[in-house]
Design a protein that fits this description.
By secondary structure, the protein is α/β, with parallel strands linked by helices. The protein has helices spanning about 75-90, 90-110, 135-145, 180-190, 215-220, 235-245, 250-260, 275-285, 290-295, 305-310, 325-340, 350-355, 360-365, 400-405; strands spanning about 5-10, 20-25, 30-35, 45-50, 55-60, 110-120, 150-155, 200-205, 230-235, 265-270, 285-290, 315, 380-385, 410-415, 420-424.
Amino acid sequence: MTDRWIADLAWLGGEDLDRDVLLEVEDGRFITVTPDADSASASRLTGVTLPGMVNAHSHAFHRMLRGRTHRQGGDFWLWREFMYEAAADLTPESYEEIATRVYIEMVRAGFTTVGEFHYVHHQAGGHPYDDPNEMGHVLIRAARRVGIRIALLDSGYLTANLDGTPLNPVQMRFSDGTVEAWLERAGSLAEFYRDQPDVRIGLAPHSVRALPEAGLSAVAEGRAPDAPTHMHVSEQPAENQDCLKFTGVTPVGLLDRVGLLGPSTTVIHATHLTNIDIDLLGASGTGVCYCATTERELADGIGPAVAVKAAGSPLSIGSDSNAVIDPFEEARGLELHNRLATGRRGDFAPRHLLEAATANGATALGFDAGGLVVGADADFITVSSSSPRTSGLTPTEGVAQVIFSATGADVTDVFVAGRRITRD
């Protein structure tokens, strides 16, 4: 069966919007994408139709902290203590409810895919559930209940710091004890979901603090060639200082040394990079995911996104702590943060921001989505062109008007694999 829609306006990857774009879908993929079409038999999409937005980095349970950590002030490290308290209370039942609510919020805001960076694996104290992957299954069930695609990025976590400090009691939930045990458990999860189009399983060495150099080498040697690999990198200056002290190189330099840089790897935050780090990331084609709303929420700093892109790294976006869930806010944050840091406007063209929010994120998570393109997964959204934020939109300025003015509240319709998930 062929489903047919015609979009008033649609973004097909260029500088402008196209009119009357016919979208035909069979078996969850686009078979026709035709601008200036005349099709009375197609259902009309009123507004601006875009590829589905991709959230390349999420911690669903962090949503529990929204608005509850500001009175105390402090820094990232103090915030982390509040996060540990939230993690300590999770059960499979509560985690599924939390994740379901978070994924509903994502879909309503226009996200059609989420990369869930998952590290709360076991019971309190570190004892596995009867199924060691119970918490992973919980997150995938939540995504399927909502209808959002999910890449579960299974995290390895062995030490509390680069000097080998043992894990604290809460962190024991995150750990499999050895890198071999982690890779075996994550491998069984990947086998369980093999060839299921709505799920990908990737590897996520948590950070240089949590996985020693030998563990990172094991990941580089043992990962499947097409498995997405994601990792927190250089989020805080203290992380860089410790890495230099104990390994002699920066976190990016360590990933280069063990062979973990490359197109299947995405580093998260990359806030505090050296020029050499930027060159290593770009030359290897390693992706970089920025999470603008979390990076300002946690006082991480402003990352060198313009230089990273210029060096050759594809950029993606993520909601990370889920303090805000809005793909437009994350995408324009790349440009607006850069304006604050440099005093310049326009280092990112509007279409580059949309690419970061769509196709680049899909590639980072291993999905064939992110564009209104024949053969791609039919994930797309429609944004109102008549809300208080978007009225007056024109085809020639529409890409900029959408990315800089719209919010998740302006998303009216969301489709995943051609199936309508939300309406109005």
